[in-house]
Amino acid sequence: MLTAYGGAMKKSIDGIIKHPFYRKNREKIMLASDLFVVALSYIIAFWLKSDFKFFFFGDISSDKILIAGLLVLIIYGLLFAIFKIHRSLWKYISINEAIRIAAANVLATSVMIIITVLFIKKSVYYISVELIAMILSTMIMFGLRAVYRVYRRTSGYFSGGKRTVIIGAGDGGTLLLREILQNPDLDYRIVGFVDDYKVNKVVMGLNVLGTTSDLKKIKEKHEIEEAIIAIPSLDKSELNKIVDDCHDAG
Questions:
Q1: What is residue 52's three-state secondary structure?
Q2: Who is most buried in 46, 128, 170, 177, counting CB within 10 A?
Q3: Which residues partner with 206 through β-bridges?
């Protein structure tokens, strides 16, 4: 049931990602989503500072709220564009991406604080709101990207492709698994690894199911349809032996 649900969710998300509208407007959509996070962070920050009351703007006119909101979005939007936050690929999120997100948010908040000090009387209250919003927006922006990266790395576990084992649980095997998990166009569902020296170990969340001598048993038990050899250091005789084992397993 979990596999069916995961496969359906993967199909839905992949359908959105591959849609022509999304592909054409991806950067605009990413920028809009990040600015939505900023707006949401400011609303939550005001809510927190007003002791969880919903009417936290008090006697401030709607015109001033609208102008302030537009100013926030413009400043953040410019900084996000300068740091090219919206151009990054979420599935490759890294520490460098986290630094850029944090730097863009810190600089945007710094600009907002300067404007607040210069033009607003009760600046201390609003500065605290801006700092809270900065922390929230940074955390949410990075969190969303991290969740998406985890999804891309794990969605292959629920795919409906050919049930496959990777022969070799070393560096070559893990690199191959990462590529398969991140590429929805590859029609493989990796069931586990086969390795002569790492039996009963767990590699990237998948079990090492047995040795190459166990291929026939593994095929029958786990309904394996295909095997991929990922051991670059094999010499010709060793490679031929594994190929023969695969043929013997059917």
A1: coil
A2: 177
A3: 203
